[in-house]
Design brief:
15% strand; seven-stranded parallel β-sheet; 3-oxoacyl-[acyl-carrier-protein] reductase (NADPH) activity; EC 1.1.1.100; alpha/beta; SDR; fatty acid biosynthesis
Length: 249
């Protein structure tokens, strides 16, 4: 079996479950050693690391709140201290604090912006220096379909995910001269813990807005991330790839 990422090292934030776990496993399957970042789910992160090691590569778990610059910096340092380099960064960590704007508390807005947008900035900034020294790197940021379309009751989440798309474009322009690519993946509604708790009525409405008429699978997002992490995407940077069943077209 082909191992296009053999010898590479990857850091996936928010990798203990859901889309992040699927991304970490896909990178490991392709031959990369993977650092599993988590904020609170220690046991789930350990399970993910065990699944990675079962694929014949190395894994470490690192607890860090990426929304805090010092913790994001220590996270990246631990990866580089362990393996000597960092080739792939996947900024996946995210939270939700849904509410209508008129009812949204300031802390609900700030918490989501801190993790979902500033967390991407913190980790991206932290890997910039080691990747520039290597003159190579792949950075993949996870946005969302709602960052393009908007969504009622998620102004904080939408603002953060839209910001991730803009941050991706700026970083791509800044880092391209050192052969570092920065791209973005915008998943649609994916079958995860978050969507499984939706009321039936809301779930039916969502399905009605998806041309392919089904929720996506986290593995389908992971395959697109794997493409962006590999040499197959070497002439792509600053792009946002939509994995949403056709919601944005």
């Amino acid at each position: 079996m082909s191992k296009p990422l053999s010898g590479k090292t990857a850091l996936v934030t928010g990798a203990s479950r859901g889309i992040g776990r699927s991304i970490a496993l896909a990178l490991a399957e392709a031959g990369a050693n993977v650092a599993v970042n988590y904020a609170g789910s220690e046991h789930a992160a350990a399970d993910t690391a065990d699944l990675i090691r079962a694929k014949g590569v190395e894994a470490i778990t690192v607890r860090a709140d990426v929304g805090k610059a010092d913790e994001a910096g220590q996270l990246v340092k631990q990866v580089t201290d362990t393996w000597g380099r960092i080739d792939i960064l996947v900024n996946n960590a995210g939270i939700t604090r849904d509410n209508l704007i008129m009812r949204m508390k300031e802390e609900e807005f700030d918490q989501v912006i801190e993790t979902n947008l500033k967390g991407v900035y913190n980790c991206l900034k932290a890997v910039t220096r080691p990747m520039m020294k290597q003159r190579s790197g792949r950075i993949i940021n996870i946005s969302s379909v709602v960052g393009v379309l908007g969504n009622a009751g998620q102004a904080n989440y939408v603002a953060a995910k839209a910001g991730v798309i803009g941050l991706t474009k700026s970083a791509a322009r800044e880092l391209s001269s050192r052969q570092i690519t920065v791209n973005c993946v915008a998943p649609g509604f994916i079958d995860t813990d978050m969507t499984q708790v939706l009321p039936d009525e809301m779930r039916e409405k969502i399905l009605g807005d998806i041309p392919l008429a089904r929720l996506g699978r986290s593995e389908e997002v992971a395959e697109v991330v794997l493409f962006l992490a590999s040499d197959a995407s070497s002439y792509m940077t600053g792009q946002t790839l939509h994995v949403d069943g056709g919601m944005v077209m």
